[in-house]
Write a structure and sequence with these properties.
The structure is a homodimer of 651-residue chains. By secondary structure, chain A is an alpha/beta fold. The first copy, chain A, contains 20 helices and 19 strands. Chains A, B: Homodimer.
């Protein structure tokens, strides 16, 4: 029988597609939405080479300090937004690279995968390591979600070294070991040297050695830096000539300073070409000029490489810095801030989370916390959230984990949130300034809140006026979304998922407010049953909800051509009880503790923590105008009414 | 900590609710939509007693012949539509009641559960049976999906019998055995005798015996018939007085004929009261008059019972007949044809199918076949259909299984579908007459087709004009649905699920058509990519689709207050390959075989079977007007165009 399957291409034939929907997004797309596509790095490369869509990648080294770790993770988020196909993290035995320290290569690479959603390669050096030790590192990397290894020899201890029997002598030994112990689990990258390895007998010998490394099981090659495009292109031709067929990626080093260039030359034993020294020497004390020149030189070189048609992607040695590399990428047109999101929340790249496509809405502004608190789950909700009565969220004991820590210093936070609080209304003001982006009474913009590390998302900005109104009166909102009744999935503000679809939302509002307000609110909510679902809790465990038997309520969903419904966000009453502990604790951990113990400011925050309620509301009737603002209005109307209209009933 | 949960009632506060949404539907609702509600019969009774919503139940006996089985299943569907809380099937050792024969009590009860979606009680008698045998029957019943047993002694062999040691002597022994072997799995019903069991020492002794039966583990009591309401009400009071607290349901026997009354009296050893004999005797030869009287008497008696406030439901001995019982129920206002459906397709009541909430659309008109072909699955799709590449549908080898068999006789089918077919157009005509409900050229209405056992569903009727047009020209439609963009879930034609929600659909069309048509269709479909998904197959395995990597496509979904998305229908390319075998076979099995082998009519059907294609189309753009009619128009336009516009390419 003849079977002909004509598969639907990623064509942009749909009338409501925006942007170039034929380009595969570099962000780890969810195989749920692209179930047929292999998400192995080598397969992503293959698809990009077939489509001719060039990529870039970024190399970083592990930080030396804890605050360096915090900054590096922020850098990953910022540089990740431009769409690198992958990043890699170097390995230095002296830095305890396989440990659990926040400064270790292992932890940094794992964080990039799990918390920043980036495809990541962990470097691994093998010389002077036992096979057990190496196997242990690989197993740990696999467990943490890492799928790619750059196999290196590393620098042997001491000038002369002798080959160990049954030890790792060369990178090829490591490649063989990985394949032997882990089969095809990892994608393996190896290093190439466009002018030959400094220790090689000859350029030709080093080429043969590279071929052996690749034949032993490597998937692609990244080269040492070089200064002229011809150097790389000749090397590339020579590799192809001896039968190396895998992708070979040029390592680009934008010159960032005179000293760093000298240092680099010393380490790599490369010679800086005449045409570069001539430019650099005269301006060696002018860092800005050198950086500009470095950018220029890198751009020109990359252009030649890309125009050759033989270079599918370029690899940057960032030295953990942003500006120069990003500028080069922008000039090359490779920096693409793809606004499309496969799902409305930040996806993790751990393989075990591959099919995860639904989350509770509560962690929308704290996705890294959500990933942390669910890291021990063996499987993740797919399709539906379901009726799991014990979702087993891990405790959040340390609010200062390097991937959770606020980017702002204590001083900056005090400036934004108040060096001194007079009363509860001082707190209302902070919220209002955050919403409106207006400076506070001391002239500082409130760029974040304990629950929101970034300014208002574009979607939340749609509700700015209503949010301002309610925050002024002490309905302190920390999460919200408008109702959406079938907007195109390519909508720049609220869209997500493949193009050609339609996205929907129920209106949602989550806020802290006083118990007096809650008493009035409960009366008002009776009139809105069953249209409005509510859940109201305080730090002591008071718990009021009209969720039918604690079932999850879908609040975001999308319909796409040729696919099942995607329902990425729910309001789940069970998860809310875990979230509320975190939400209440953030008052103290991130705000209260800025002040002295027993100080009036601290007492105000503590009062709010102890006495306010956390409320979430859902308007189920998504085709109608959002009624939640009316609910709040009605609540205030009741509070403002003369006393005889209040009943004696309190919460 | 104080936990207060106020649960959302089934209140009809929602503005778009129709009907009395506070009444729990008697149809086996899906716990997916009502996940918190226990679906045990005794819990359904408890909820009905709390709400005061009275019920009825129906008792049947197993048929004697295979065609009797076919008729009885149809009767279940018809009488089930009025909303019985449960039905029960009697057990007669002489009739091989535990066998796999279509006439056995076991098979009939199992069919009622699995194929008719009715809560069912299987009677079981225990005397002269070994414990192993009884345990075997119970295990088989459980495996088949039965959850309720009526535990009876049965009639011992011979007039005198002796108690067996370690045997089953009384029904109480069976009750104990069921609880001991199966814990709380089954709900157990026992028989009560309002005037005492004929063999009991005394009325009081029999009451005590009933209490012992109930204490041994029975959940409720159904009584023997009686002729006066007082008889039952006194019995009920006496039961309560000695501490029997479970539900006690009156058994109602509408008098249907003089002979059947006499027979009944002989078997039950009851006395017919004077006031009844006085009416019956004079009219004993007038069956119609007796039936009318029987209806009247039953209605009056039930009214007294229900008005007492002590009777939550009434149980009818139907003698497998419909008319009298249905009339009594209508007059009592208990017959409620609840148009609400928990899901758009007929739900099965097997416990293992409890969470099933998504099916392929193809079996929409053949749900019993779907249930049959998936009966061996251990679990059922919930939430999403998913990417199961081998759903393992069972073969459909016997198109004449009693629960699948057409209700129409061979003669009736020939009248509808043609005693003699002239050509393919004769077949087109049959389809057209089915769609339009106009008589065929011989004056007969076409009430069904091989793929559709019933006339057009109301939803399909919405598309009648367009369907007629295309069928006339040889696009032989067998399944379709309109697009729906957020109609209230209480919509009388397309609604389903809880009230207060919104239902959505993508437009769908499935038809047989010639290969010439398909050639033109494929050209037309190129213009509609990716908006229209198609799948085109023939009996030989030709297989063309643009479904991305054979993924399922959601075509029906609903949004409800406080719940996750329900997506009950998909177009699944993998399942389509199983369905198409059944769809093609039905040409031959149900139509072709009506004619002589080698006859011209048979040859016409065979030609269609061998050469036509089965096509399904989905219009993904559900907010826009259904484009599938335009697709078909375009196809005919291409076919009607002068020859030079056709390419030589054929399918």
């Amino acid at each position: 029988s003849v079977n002909q399957s004509s598969t639907m291409s990623d064509s942009s034939g749909a009338s409501n597609s925006g942007g170039d929907s034929s380009k595969e997004s570099s962000r780890c797309s969810t195989p749920v939405l692209d179930a047929y596509r292999s998400d192995r790095l080598r397969d992503k490369m293959r698809r990009r080479m077939e489509s001719g869509d060039r990529w870039f990648s970024l190399e970083f080294f592990p930080p030396r300090t804890a605050s360096g770790a915090v900054n590096l993770i922020s850098r990953f988020d910022r540089m990740g937004s431009g769409g690198p196909l992958f990043i890699d993290i170097t390995w230095h035995p002296a830095g305890d690279p396989g440990s659990d320290k926040e400064t270790s290569s292992m932890m940094i690479a794992s964080t990039a995968v799990n918390y920043c959603g980036l495809e990541s390669i962990l470097h691994l050096t093998c010389c002077n390591q036992s096979k057990e030790k190496i196997t242990g590192y690989l197993a740990k990397a696999k467990h943490l979600g890492l799928k790619n290894i750059m196999a290196l020899r590393g620098d042997p201890i001491g000038e002369d070294w002798e080959e160990e029997e049954d030890g790792f002598n060369y990178a090829i030994d490591l490649v063989k070991h990985i394949r032997s112990e882990f089969d095809d689990y990892f994608d393996i990258c190896v290093a190439g040297y466009p002018t030959g390895h400094p220790e090689a007998e000859s350029y030709e010998a080093d080429l043969r050695h590279l071929k052996e490394k690749v034949d032993a099981g490597a998937d692609f090659v990244i080269t040492q830096l070089f200064f002229r495009p011809d150097t790389f292109l000749k090397f590339l031709d020579d590799c192809r000539a001896i039968g190396i067929t895998c992708p070979i990626l040029p390592g680009i080093f934008p010159i960032q300073g005179y000293q760093s260039l000298r240092q680099l030359v010393k380490l790599s034993k490369l010679e800086v070409p005449e045409e570069i020294t001539q430019v650099i020497e005269p301006i060696k004390d002018n860092d800005a000029a050198i950086r500009n020149y470095g950018i220029q030189q890198a751009v020109e070189m990359c252009r030649v490489l890309l125009d050759s048609g033989k270079v599918p992607g370029v690899h940057f040695y960032t030295l953990n810095r942003e500006v120069a590399t990003m500028e080069v990428l922008r000039q090359l047109g490779l920096w693409i801030e793809d606004p499309r999101r496969p799902l409305p929340w930040a996806v993790s790249a751990h393989p075990k989370r591959k099919v995860e496509d639904v989350r509770p809405i509560f962690w929308a502004s704290r996705p890294k916390s959500y990933i942390y608190r669910t890291q021990d789950w063996d499987d993740f909700p797919n399709g539906r959230w379901g009726n799991s009565s014990s979702p087993a969220f891990g405790e959040l004991n340390d609010y200062y984990l390097f991937y959770l820590k606020s980017k702002s210093s204590k001083d900056a936070l005090l400036q934004m949130w108040g060096e001194e609080l007079q009363n509860e209304e001082s707190v209302f003001e902070v919220f209002t300034c955050y919403i409106t982006a207006q400076p506070n009474r001391c002239g500082h913009k409130v760029m974040c809140l304990p629950w929101n590390d970034e300014p208002l998302a574009p979607e939340t900005n749609l509700l700015k006026d209503e949010l301002e109104k309610v925050n002024r009166r002490g309905v302190l909102t920390i999460n919200s979304q408008p109702n959406i009744n079938g907007k195109p999935s390519t909508d720049p503000i609220v869209g997500w998922g493949p193009p050609g679809g339609y996205v929907f939302q129920k209106a949602y509002l989550e806020f802290f407010t006083s118990s007096e307000n809650v008493t009035a609110l409960l009366k008002v909510l009776k009139k809105y049953e069953p249209r409005v679902n509510y859940h109201i809790v305080n730090v002591n465990g008071r718990n009021l909800t009209n969720a039918p038997e604690m079932q999850p309520n879908a609040v975001t969903w999308g319909i796409f051509a040729g696919r099942e419904i995607v329902q990425p966000t729910v309001v789940d009453p069970v998860s809310f009880m875990y979230w509320k502990d975190e939400a209440f604790a953030l008052w103290i951990e991130q705000w209260g503790k800025l002040y002295e113990d027993e100080s009036p400011s601290r007492m105000i925050i503590k009062y709010i923590h102890d006495n306010y309620f956390l409320v979430n509301l859902v308007d189920n009737d998504f085709p109608l105008e959002n009624c939640l603002w009316q609910v709040i209005d009605d609540m205030f109307e009741l509070l403002d009414a003369p006393p005889e209209l209040h009943s004696e009933e309190t919460v």
